[in-house]
Design a protein that fits this description.
13% strand; NAD(P)-bd_dom_sf; 62 residues; alpha+beta; single chain; 39% helix
Amino acid sequence: EKETIQNVIHVIVDVRDVAEALVLVYENSEASGRYICNAHHIRARDLVEILKRLYPHYNYPK
């Protein structure tokens, strides 16, 4: 068994959304500064449970 992981929140974004955001910022001459792309959030425990269902042959942390 793997070690225990902290049940922190992870922010998830689809790479296609990031690419679209980059193009929009690049094409907008008024855009400046930093932008945050955030689509979903999930707790580590919930993410591990999803991965266990999808890929049961791997060893996961508790």
